[in-house]
Amino acid sequence: MLHVYGDNILECWRLVQYANTQETEPTVPANNDILKPTISVGGREIKLMPSPDLIPINIKENFCKHRDSLRENPDAVISDETNILATFEFCSALPAGNNAWQRHGRALSICVNGISHFHIAKVGGYELDKDRNKKATRLPNPLLLISYLAMGRGIEPGGSYFVPIVVDDTSDELGDLIGHCDCKHELSQIVQSLIGKGEIPGDSLERIIEANIRLIESISKPKGDKKTLSKDEWVNIAKKLAEGKKDPLKEIADARRIEWKKSAPRNTSSTGMKLQRYMEINFQAIGDAKIPICLARKEQIKGFQEFLEELYADSIKQMGFNLQASVPGDLLITCDSGFKPRGDDSRPARGLTPFAKSLVGENSEVKILVFLYGPCKEYQWRKIKDGHIENLAQSNGLWESIYKLADFLILDSESHAHPLTVEVRK
Questions:
Q1: Domain interval for residue 289
Q2: pLDDT digits over 269-283, tens only?
């Protein structure tokens, strides 16, 4: 018997509904368990298990075999008695712009463990203002799609895939623009095949990848500018990844240099502002200036280290921080407040380091530096200062993503006694 695990019964039912055809319409037998019902789809019995806590240990262990695994649960899991067949994430509120990376932790963590993951994103709707008026369209940034192409093609077995579902109430104009990118049919085929045969049809995956490239082509600026790559540049990168290129960061960085400028919220620490200004002057964006990730090329590392030694002399003397000795290639830098005003970590910040990691691909010479300037709680700052970031990672999703996936950390907020510079992997 197959099992579908979900955050709740609605998530379980939501998944099996994608297998709904005239021949495979889900049916519910009489005298059923109301809490954990068994349904029939195409003659195959499926047990709906409405809680991730119900996943047996022998199956849950499949999520944490890889050293980069994070404690992230998908919205829905379909499995047989011993193995996970695939996992699914439902995203009905894809932000207009860039914050959709908050779910990258689970997308990356699941696929590096050899499990196929599908990020089902409803696109074509609208962000609303406080008066419920339409403000902006819900469309992903091209870099988000590039990262999923990198995870889909570059991580085998497994792979994470972005599945665009165009909402029914999208405008005629937007429907004409992105309607040909809709993957409802492909998703239905995948769920049907998983239920009927226990496998994912390769031709459906190919069509999803093709739809991703079409979506990139549809939403990108035709000519580009100093703030973003052009449509042709994005599509060229996407096609290379679809063909099996495994170094997405190189393809993006070599396409064209884009100046980087951190958007709000900005740092208010004097040293943090100097660091941010240095990065804005010297480093380049990853295809789009709005993304809070920038890139220092290999030849810039020596000068950057000298700048940091002058800016953070006391911390580096006390804690050590040597980029020259530890970065053989380029350095990818994420820049985010990371925390809400009261010190709780923000959900999007948890996904920013995995987002950056997904763009590195198989290039082991590229390292990741996380620059946080928000007011983390005092006890967290002290634990990091005392060298106990691993302890924080056991109970906090943001620190776990940094501990597992980053190589360096700079924590610089005016709320703390002084900045911290940490070699995470040391």
A1: 270-423
A2: 899 999 999 999 999
Q: How many CB atoms lie within 10 A of CB 4?
A: 27
Residue 265 lies in a domain: no
Does residue 209 have a pLDDT over 90? yes
Residues 179 and 286 in one domain: no
Classify residue 8: in a domain, yes or no: yes
Residue 403 to residue 306: CA distance in whole angstroms: 25
Confidence of residue 97 (pLDDT cuts 50, 70, 90): very low
Q: Which residue has the tokens 């709904």?
A: 20
Q: Pick from 149, 77, 143: which is nearest to 110 by CA?
A: 77
In a domain, 251, yes or no: no
As a three-state string, the secondary structure of 289-341 is CCCCEEEECHHHHHHHHHHHHHHCHHHHHHHCCCHHHHCCCCEEEEEECCECC
Is-contact 263 276, C-beta < 8 A? no
Do 111 and 19 fall into the same domain? Answer: yes
* CA-based R_g, the chain, Å: 22
Question: Residue 339 forms beta bridges with which residues?
Answer: 345
Decide: residue 217, CB within 10 A, 0-12 exposed, 13-18 middle, 19+ buried.
Answer: middle
| Of the candidate ranges 75-89, 106-120, 330-344, 381-395, the one whose mean pLDDT is the lowest | 330-344
Residue 256 counted as domain residue: no
Whole-number Å distance between alpha carbons of 78 and 156 = 19
pLDDT at 346: 76
How far the first Cα of the chain sits from its last, in Å, is: 46
Res. 96: pLDDT tops 50:
no
**Residues 304 and 296 sit within 8 Å (Cβ to Cβ):** yes
Domain count, the chain: 2
Are the C-beta atoms of residues 141 and 288 closer than 8 Å to each other?
yes
Q: Which residues sit opposite 77 in a β-bridge? A: 5, 87
Distance from chain centroid for Cα 43: 36
Those residues with Cβ within 8 angstroms of residue 87's Cβ, 6 or more apart along the chain or in another chain: 74, 76, 77, 78, 106, 110, 115, 116, 117, 118
Side-by-side strand order, sheet with 117-123: 38-41, 44-49, 2-6, 76-79, 84-91, 117-123, 160-166
Last residue of a domain, one of 231, 246, 261: 246
Residues 203 and 300 in one domain: no
Most distant CA pair in the chain: distance in Å? 73
Whole-angstrom Cα distance, residue 233 to residue 163? 22
Written as one letter, the residue type at 342 is R
Residues 308 and 190 in one domain: no
